[in-house]
Amino acid sequence: MPELRKDPVIGRWVIISAERGRRPSSYSSVTRVSDAAMCPFCPGNESATPSEILAYRTPESEPNQPGWRIRVIPNKYPALIVEGDLNREPMGMYDRMNGIGAHEVIIETPEHGRDMVDMTDEEVRDVLWVYRERMADLERDIRFKYILVFKNHGEAAGASLEHSHSQLIATPIIPKRVDEKVAGAKRYYQFKERCIFCDIVHQEINDQERIVKDFDAFISFEPFAPRFPFETCIIPKTHQSSFLEMSDWEYLTLARCLRDTLIRLKLALNNPPFNYILCTRPTSPEYHELFHWHIEVIPKLTRVAGFEWGSGFYINPTLPEEAAAFLRGIEIERYGEIKHPRASGEDG
Amino acid sequence: MPELRKDPVIGRWVIISAERGRRPSSYSSVTRVSDAAMCPFCPGNESATPSEILAYRTPESEPNQPGWRIRVIPNKYPALIVEGDLNREPMGMYDRMNGIGAHEVIIETPEHGRDMVDMTDEEVRDVLWVYRERMADLERDIRFKYILVFKNHGEAAGASLEHSHSQLIATPIIPKRVDEKVAGAKRYYQFKERCIFCDIVHQEINDQERIVKDFDAFISFEPFAPRFPFETCIIPKTHQSSFLEMSDWEYLTLARCLRDTLIRLKLALNNPPFNYILCTRPTSPEYHELFHWHIEVIPKLTRVAGFEWGSGFYINPTLPEEAAAFLRGIEIERYGEIKHPRASGEDG
Q1: Least buried of A71, B119, B167, B192, by fewest C-beta within 10 Å?
Q2: Do A314 and B203 touch (CB under 8 A)?
Q3: Is B300 domain-assigned?
């Protein structure tokens, strides 16, 4: 069973997941599947994955058979596992607990080689609805304090399979970086009695210079102090603490905003590897006033080296105002013509 | 001028250093020099670097000419610059200050292609003495709250030049990760009235299972909750808050311990890219009782992906006890014969 261990000085929990199979001798080679015929995420290969948890599929099709549009499965090599108790215990001055949690994979499309930028807005919205459905289900398990949805795109961003997918991890503790955001938002709230993220939205709309695009209910913008070049944030303009608080129609606007961001980054930076992370509030409703959900999109352009690991202090070689201007200048309307000739032959 | 900007929520400072020359269009190609004839760190090419700050050189040789064994120069593309005032100021709800600091490069050897593992213990000690000398000098500048020394080895670990070198960055703020360590050590001290690092050393020596090697005054060990596989820590057994507190002879023992660690990692993991980071206390002596300096050595074996960036929560696929046993089993005595045939023809 995986275990959670706590760094005694900093207080950060780490997942030690030896089941994921990395013996000391195995670090020289990594297997990657880019051949569609061998891909476990392609239709026809459903038996290569654990049984599905959820799928959007045609009415006549059977579970774990072709006919699905989106499919959710447990991760075959889970970092955390669902069965068991938390069992927090000391080891001398150290702390550990069982690696209880959930680790799921959302296969976003049956088509190998089709990315989120190539999907329709409605297809991306359906992926977001699937996130919502899985998050709402897992929030009912009182062992889970946080549910993190993220996407790794491209090998350099950590994707081990090429077929377009996202992941979800439910954890029995609030992860450190979320905890830091909560703590920072709380300090601000105590001082100002306002949500810090709402104030950020306000200042960004006033300043304009870091805005990439203003959608109806959301903005995409480059943060004032980004760790990475072209790090882009998507945030609802009005206060929503959780990703689950949106009305159905808002997910479609969000899908438009997310696709717009991904297409701009793809055209601006020559299809970079990237990660996006859905930062929603911890599962407990007590954080409703403080937290304000958002999505961080991070293209992987620079290497993180010793200075950053040692200090937690990042060197970003691109001004966010300059990155925002560059992204605003991308002619996104032409994306379909230039990069997606096959779209013309499709009906949805 | 570079600037420092503060993330309003988390409170992390970021260096925005547009002078380092990464325009939006420049992310597709990175220039790397692996040809010794073109290497700015090789003897004979001294004019390709800024003027040296310090060098250990033969008595008859001239500054910025060949004849040096170790050479310290300002970074040609500094993340922070020495001249100017701090000028902390608001930008609406945000905070910024001038990017004041120092950014130096320590060229560890005149020989291109010679790594720290190929050096003698005395040569590595001399590098450590140079660290000490530069740190002591910069500590006298009251604008600097922290001095971070680190090494990036290998392209994947962020080294842009192959020739063996380390870097030093002096910063006008205490970097976030150091601040977290100080805060954690302080909580522990208030509770126990003991240094948390001293207690860790005590438990590690008792447990033995995570120890890699026990030297006279230092141990190398795998931390209980490491973020990365084969992350290794070197720490003095008795309390020393700063790297500058060692007696002269202790630097030689430390050099042996550091070389031992680097050779084990090289043999165990097939010459991996790595970073090491010297974690010493902040420049102010007020941290003397709380802090305990150490070196973190991090081989770069896994990719850091969306989950880690988003959560600050790391998945480590190797048990530290297993990594320690593997490293203990490396036959380090044979390193000279196997990997360093040229050593036999040298006299020191």
Answers
A1: B192
A2: no
A3: yes
